[in-house]
Design goal:
single chain; Arc Repressor Mutant, subunit A; 3-stranded antiparallel beta sheet; 7 helices; globular
């Protein structure tokens, strides 16, 4: 929490409105990263591992090429390989090699991984509700709209 308080105090020197807006978004992002890391650490996973588990869980076949997972997460092949290695060691996923092309590797969720992911998703929903409880539903909706608008502006340049 002390680290969050320090983050909240940084960048107080910025006064121009456009710069202040960007700084506040960045500061909020940094604070969220810290809170996310602390939350997932309790369950022995990282935010990135959680994302992989959710991607596999939501996939209808429950089995995906590592490259597909990496594309969905926007990470490199090396990063996804490392994530899958660690999730495999925890017993949450298993690798499946293509029978015709051994270079093609898929990841599938194990039963243990499925149960764990279902539990973590429920805890995540409860936790995220607590994180934004200071906002009304209208404010949450407005914030989602504003962030979407900003994201479109960033894409368009």
């Amino acid at each position: 929490m002390r680290n969050l308080a320090k983050m909240a105090q940084s960048y107080n020197w910025v006064e121009e409105m456009a710069s202040r807006t960007i700084v506040e978004i960045k500061r909020t992002h940094e604070m969220l990263e810290e809170v996310f890391n602390n939350h997932f650490r309790k369950y022995g996973i990282s935010d990135a591992k959680f994302n992989v588990l959710v991607i596999l869980y939501k996939n209808p076949e429950k089995c995906m090429m590592l490259s597909e997972i990496g594309e969905e997460m926007l990470v490199t092949k090396a990063n996804i390989t490392g994530l899958i290695d660690r999730l495999e060691r925890q017993g949450f996923v298993r690798r499946i090699r293509d029978e015709t092309d051994r270079r093609k590797i898929k990841a599938a969720m194990t039963e243990k991984g499925k149960r764990f992911t279902e539990e973590i998703i429920e805890r995540y929903k409860e936790w995220s509700a607590r994180m934004v409880r200071v906002l009304s539903d209208g404010e949450k909706s407005q914030l989602i709209d504003i962030m979407g608008k900003l994201q479109r502006g960033l894409i368009e340049g």
